[in-house]
Amino acid sequence: MKKQLFLFLLIGGLFFTSGKVNAQFRSIPGIVTDTFKLKYPNARNVNWSDQITYFQAKFTQDGEGCTARYSSKGEWIQTEKPITEDKLPPAVKDGFTKSKYAGDWKLLNVTVRYLPRDFTNYVLRIGKGDIQRKNLLFAADGQLIKD
Do residues 91 and 143 share a domain? Predict the structure, then answer.
């Protein structure tokens, strides 16, 4: 009985003390890292992760934190970086102030998203009260794409 109790406590202790496990299931293909180095030759503090459907690099460039995503074939999918509200293009600011969210919703943070074919989108994280949160997706011309 004492052995069973000891094993139970040992297994339970291991279960509760184990933290989040970040397993790298696949190694990052060379084509992915090579393509990244070509696009971001000045990137620093690069940290790769396998996100199952894509590979993600978190890095700093020009003192700003960025996140880039690549397919397993080395195709660049997108890059995101947080920006301050004052760096939002006037068209996007105007689009937000004309949206149904302008009055009661507060702008919490902004992320710029660079996409292939020179598309740029802006993700505006907004909140209302302490609980309600939404992500609004705007095109660079200020058009609300998705709420």
Answer: yes
Q: What would the mean pLDDT of 36-63 be, rounded to a whole number? A: 95
State mean pLDDT over 85-93: 94
CATH number of the domain encompassing residue 118: 3.10.450.360
> Order of strands across the sheet with 55-61?
44-50, 55-61, 64-70, 76-83, 106-115, 119-128, 132-139, 144-146
Amino acid at 58: K
Is 117 inside a domain boundary? yes
The set of residues, in sequence order, having a beta carbon less than 8 Å from that of 48 and lying 6+ positions away, is: 28, 33, 55, 56, 57
129 three-class SS:
coil
Q: What is the rounded average pLDDT for all residues in the chain?
A: 85
**Amino acid letter at 110?**
V
pTM: 0.77
Give the separation between CA 5 and CA 128, rounded to whole angstroms: 50
List the end-to-end C-alpha distance of the chain, in Å, as a whole number: 59
Token pair for residue 65? 């934190």
**What domain range is 74 assigned to?**
21-78
